[in-house]
Amino acid sequence: MSILVVGSVALDTVETPFGKVSDVLGGSAIYFSAAASLFTDVKLVAVVGTDFPLEQLDFLRERGVDLTGLQVADGQTFRWSGRYDYDLNVTHTLDTQLNVFADFHPDLPSGFANADTLFLANIDPTLQFEVLQQVKQARLTMMDTMNFWIQGQREALSRTIESVDIVTMNESELRMFAGASSLLTGARRVRELGPKALVIKQGEYGAVMFDESGYFVAPAYPLEEVRDPTGAGDSFAGGFLGYLDKVGKLTPQTIRQAIILGSVVASYTVGQFSLEALRSLTTDAIMKRYEEFRNFTLVEPV
Ligand code: AMP
């Protein structure tokens, strides 16, 4: 089993009430790969500039992530800069510099198109669609997006949404995309476009999944120390889809397990800045929090 991910590889500058980091490793494809590689084989397709410190990806290589689809192009690496206040659920984007992403076209190395699962991480929806066209026989396809693309590339985004099995968004992004304040209405509108399921991320409040059987609600793992929420969504997606690719079957049960595993991985990501927590995360630590999750969400019949 394997997952192909296309998304951003970035140098992030992030400020939260607990500290500030500049030009550190980030990007949707990186957070996703670091999380998904704890469960299954990952192949990454993205671009960086000649200024990118490639040795920072050694930990992914050691975890078996196939980086042959990472192009190094003339120019500067994609840069994103953001700030969070005490309400860590709200991201304030200060700057987005596409740089080498402006001229990027995903070129899949041989064998990459045969991946069982495809994750279109947050990136220009036109590029997401280009990859989708090349990976025709994936058993499961999922995509993420954000307000930047909902506002700037709505038509291209809708075309990608129409063509995938699972969509994930933040709740504010769902409201913006669907033009509805009710999450139920928003989820119905997205599912009417084609996707079988929609996973809505709610930051420190958890995640909700809508599909034909109804919905499933999972809280977030309770934490006293959240230092940097950057990458929570991508690492949630990595745990979620990494597990589904590993078990190779999509049932209401595996989807629920995947949502909790995604939440567990994200709970580690946000405890430290950048990729620090994900670098050293182990499956044992994940399973320990998974068991805690089972205990604090179990309700006995009355
Ligand atoms: P998340 O916090 O999970 O939504 O994702 C944060 C990551 O997304 C950061 O590491 C950023 O580098 C990356 N990112 C932010 N804006 C964009 C964008 N417009 N396109 C692609 N990636 C982005």
In short:
By secondary structure, the protein is α/β, with parallel strands linked by helices. The chain is 37% helix and 26% strand. The model has no long low-confidence stretch (mean pLDDT 96).
Q: Which series of helices and strands comes N to C?
A: EEEHEHEEEEHEHHEHHEEEHHHH
CA radius of gyration is 18 Å
Query: Portion of residues in helices?
Result: 25-40%
Shape: globular
Total beta strand runs = 13
Q: Main sheet, how many strands, which sense, barrel?
A: 9 strands, mixed
Indicate the mean pLDDT.
96
Structural class category: alpha/beta
Poorly predicted ranges (pLDDT <50, ≥5 residues)? none
SS summary, helix count: 11
Q: What amount of the residues lies in strands?
A: 25-35%
Bound molecules: adenosine monophosphate
Order of the strands making up the biggest sheet: 5-4-1-8-9-10-11-12-13
Distance between the termini: 42 Å
Strand and helix map with partners:
Elements (H helix, E strand, L loop, with lengths): L1 E5 L3 E7 L2 E8 L1 H9 L4 E9 L8 H5 L3 E8 L4 E6 L8 E6 L19 E4 L4 H10 L5 E5 L2 H6 L1 H9 L3 E5 H8 L4 H10 L4 E5 L5 E5 L2 E5 L13 H16 L4 H18 L6 H5 L2 H15 L5
Parallel strand pairs: 1-4, 1-8, 2-6, 4-5, 8-9, 9-10, 10-11
Antiparallel strand pairs: 2-3, 6-7, 11-12, 12-13
Helix pairs in contact: 1-8, 3-5, 6-7, 8-9, 9-11
The structure holds adenosine monophosphate.
Adenosine monophosphate (AMP) binds next to β2, α1 and α8.
